Amino acid sequence: MKKIIINLSIILLSGIGVKAQNKNPFLWGIASAAYQVEGGYRADGKGESKWDFLTNKVGVTQFLIGQKQTGNVAINMYDRTQYLKDIQLMKELGVNSYRFSLDWSRIIPDGIGAVNEKGLAHYDLLIDDLKAAGIEPVVTLYHFDYPMALVQKGGWGNPEMINWYKNYAEVVLKRYGKKVKYFITFNEPYIEFMVAEYLINMEQSKEPNTVRFAKGIQKAHRQLLANAAAIKMFHEMNLKGQIGMTLNLSPCLPLDSNNPKDIKASEFEDKLLNKFFLDGLFKGTYPQQVVDSVQKYDPSFQPSGSEMKILAETKPDFLGINYYAPALVSYDEKAPFASTWMDNNTDKVKSHNGPVRPDELYHLLTRIKNDYGSPKMMITENGAGFEGEDIKVKPIVKDPLRADFIQRHVVAALKAKTDGVNLIGYFPWSGWDNFEWVFGYTKRFGLIYVDFETQERIPKQSYFEYQKIIKANK
Ligand code: BGC
Q1: What are the recorded Gene Ontology BP terms (predicted)?
Q2: Range of the domain at 74
Q3: Is the peptide bond before 395 cis (omega within 30 degrees of 0)?
Q4: pTM of this prediction?
């Protein structure tokens, strides 16, 4: 009898009978981040975080949208009753994975020191609930936010931050390392330091913009070192899963392709925005032109030989890529590092994060494959919001442009995969409308509409489009 069972299982596993289950299927998921969705800002012993402070005390949304908004309630996903309903919506959508982030200030409220068991238990349960629903958790350890107590100690301006992060990462990996297959150390250092912190100027520094910008690169360097330390630790723990880092990447194009100044500025922007991070991560080097420009304004930026060796010796298991749009770069002698790209969306219908260019996603993926030894890549964010969309005409919410955006970007991503890119997953940003940082609740990116007053959820057209895509590609 035993023999027959063994033989039968060999037949099943070899795919002659029922097809063997692929251990790591392509990840079709959706993405979110703790501060943007959780709410529960004082729940279960959570400490104050940087974004709690920025929204409640500085009133940072005031500058751009003229009113104070916070993530104190957000879309209420800290509440289990709510998130179980959201898991149900994910199941109906057909995703097999969910990228979300942990809030450091729930786990170690003061950044260093005592661990908060209730915070850890919350994520334990969330992970279990997802797995019970057949959804693979993809866990980001750090998505822009961290304990305010560490901000007060200088945050990433303080080299000690690397050790504080390492300590936090150890707590997380020890607790969840056996049951989570995919970890992401950080999300988008460029956006955190060179865009958000730079624009907000939380420390109210009077230093020239060029100096503040250069100091952002120094902080990003520290984040790359902390990333390397966490990856090393993960590998030494012999865990079965995979760990990577997420970068925001944008091919840089001259706004005016006939203007030599724009061309030059776009080449430099590419080094600053893309190459600095990719080279740092995969080669343990930085483009000399970036190092020189940074040192001009921040002479203390002196990555040491041993630091670069750490970067060179530690490779992520996969690269997380957040792609929204290419950067259209125009030369601007007044701007820090001499170029601007944030508002150069030339499309007729404006999308929130730049021009709609799926072709550039294809170029980006194939470029990374060719230049960085064909690493595994996961598209950890890709999405858009359009002025005038997301109109509720009950029972549906219309977002044809977002549906079209997702469809065309998936086609581009899968074409790259067919052409040899080692792509392991795709996650639109975002599952739900949520708290869009300095823009508060005024910019929607979700596949699921959220009524921010009542917390009602309504799947949009883009949700059904994505559902079709997943079904067709499974
Ligand atoms: C961030 C998200 C953000 C999204 C849309 C990305 O830069 O990782 O947190 O909401 O872009 O702007």
Answers
A1: carbohydrate catabolic process
A2: 2-473
A3: yes
A4: 0.94
